[in-house]
Amino acid sequence: MKRIAIDMDEVIADFQAKHLTVYNDRFNEALTPEDLHGTRLWTLRPHIAAEVISLVDEPGFFRDLAVMDGSQEVIRELHEHYEIYIVTAAMEHPMSFLSKYEWLREHFPFLSEMNFVFCGDKSIIRADYLIDDTSRHFKGFEGQGILFTAAHNRYETGFVRVDNWQEVRRYFLSQNSAG
Amino acid sequence: MKRIAIDMDEVIADFQAKHLTVYNDRFNEALTPEDLHGTRLWTLRPHIAAEVISLVDEPGFFRDLAVMDGSQEVIRELHEHYEIYIVTAAMEHPMSFLSKYEWLREHFPFLSEMNFVFCGDKSIIRADYLIDDTSRHFKGFEGQGILFTAAHNRYETGFVRVDNWQEVRRYFLSQNSAG
Prior knowledge:
By secondary structure, chain A is of the alpha/beta class. Chain A has helices at residues 15-27, 41-44, 49-54, 71-78, 97-107, 165-175; strands at 3-6, 83-89, 116-119, 129-132, 144-148, 160-162. Chain A is globular and about 50 Å long.
């Protein structure tokens, strides 16, 4: 059975929506998702980048992120044909560990926690596919990288790209439904 | 540069000493390390196995484990010739995440946290070597498994085995010091 590694933030969990809400609230701004096309919130506000990033270190930040549309249904279906691992670069934000774990248990109860991986550098992952919104993780990855479209990566080229979970479904179920 | 994945408990962190101390204290017993030769504490006391295991879920259990003799010096040396990743099966004990992270930052400050991995099933790991006291992790591992001697595994056969960190040093530095 082939193995698919799946990132969390911006792929199954709507990190950006929460970050933008908390940011606007804190700094009395009204930035929209469109303002983040091709960039990151902390790149857009370089003079307060550290503060913008540290918003995610507040207790529970990752606990109530919205689930990305279609991710539960499609992963449940893929799970019948592939080994599914959730692989998140959590080491930069140690305060996120427990929230991320609880979030996964709540929203993806059909996955075993033995298939959750909290890491930093994803070149340590052995899988056939990696679905991720951050293209640098594909560099040391030996399998096929699949870029999941997010505001910040929409102008990047040179990658296999999917725009949403229905496209993930088509990619895997048309290619090789038997894994 | 070749890559060595290194387990935490019973390899760089003295899990057993702490577990035994807490157990004896809680149950008014006087078990010694010798009583655990070829077994585990929860196997030795099957009628209270769940309670014995849950001792490790108390806050901070993993924060003050002793560092295994020689592990810091040898890993610091190996680090010059190999990529070092610390890979721990933490998913069974989510309350351990933050303590394990802080412990690693304190005792192995020369390693990047980008090279820490908290997982369940270690077959997800891509590395050339895995040093571990639990032989079942070698089953799905594609590299060379190296069994680090612990009380519970001392009667297991059929594995490359090292008894301590000086033996790890000899294994790697006589074999291929250039990684």
